[in-house]
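Morning F.,

Quick status update on the modeling queue. The single chain you submitted on Monday has been processed. Sequence for confirmation:
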Amino acid sequence: MKVLVLGAGVIGTTSAYFLAKQGHEVTVIDRQNSVSMETSHSNAGCLSYGFTSPWAGPGLPFNILKWALTGRSPLVINPNMSIDTIKFLYRMYKNCNPDSYEINKSRMLRIANYSQKALLEIETDFDINYAQRKQGSLQLFWDTKEIDKAKRDISILNKFNIKSELLDSENCVRVEPGLKYIKNQLAGGIQFTGDFTGNCYSFSNEIYKKCVEMGVNFEFNTEIKSIETHNNAVSSVLTSKAEFKADCYSVSLGSYSTKILSQIGIQTPIYPVKGYSITLPVLIDEDAPQSTIMDERNKIAITRLGDKIRVAGIAHLTDFNQDLRAKSFESLKYGLDSLFPHSYEPTNDLDFWTGFRPSTPDGTPIIGSTPYHNLYLNTGHGTLGWTMSAGSGKLLANLISGIEPEISLEGIDMSRYSFANKTTQNYG
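Structure tokens below.
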């Protein structure tokens, strides 16, 4: 079967891999000149199978007010809010209750757990190197209230056999020796022993090279203009280069999925939550992070990538504004200095990056069929695109191939959004 994948980020590229593995003739289209040049390029670098949670939770509304007083809020909202921003905030607010949080977290963990197994399958298939470290991750807490909340999350983690261990401050330093300078400030942490770290951009390029070996065709520097439909099916995709036809189509365009899908009556509630990262050279190894640290107070992730440290975070609601915000740089730098003050080499030669995380109000991605019988979605993964990429790609490939999915699709496809479709067809 000929399959056309729209988007060559880590989601689209991994989808292409599993589709090709199942014997399909695959073409991938992207406007950039290579794979993973946007959201996947300089992400946090953590495969956080254990630390998988929606932003929308019971404490979020209160935290927004608290963060506003600090001057270093991890959530930044443009005061001149667009209609899209208002809709996203309203839908997210509706998920800020205990019941919705547990449902959404469970759905996300289902995909993440499956994705970890799919990544191990990739590593079995071929020798892939992406500066990976399999030393787990550490979520830090600064007070007992954060620990109490985490204990409630552990019960959900246990349902999915996610390995975790509650640590006191002494053991946090044992796991991450560089935290010794702030040991007395810490209340404790949770170590997720099954989490990995690595370079997502390197991973995507390794998958890309393998895809090319398997016969996948990549059309870069190709702008997607429209999806053409006929009789409740996609007939072709019009681009800046040519018209592409296939038997089946998949949309993995991240935050840009919404615009292209709205042309054919599919309203995905995906919002471009802007994130930032800084990449710095390691100065002293023992003072630097050894894996990934998630700072619950500042909502940032600090990850070791070979001889580099990456700090990532901030949720900036400003539509598609690509400006590099100086205050976000200062917040990330402050977060790193607070935890690992002697870890990095002072330099002006650093990588300050921004990208748009394709976020749904409930945190769960959108994977599965659409009203058009030959059109599938694999998008909306938010901050966890790389974490969920392998599982999402394999799940999509199985659906297209007619193979029974290995995990439940309940709450994962578009059917959970009553407003999403203007066509006459039902989801299924």
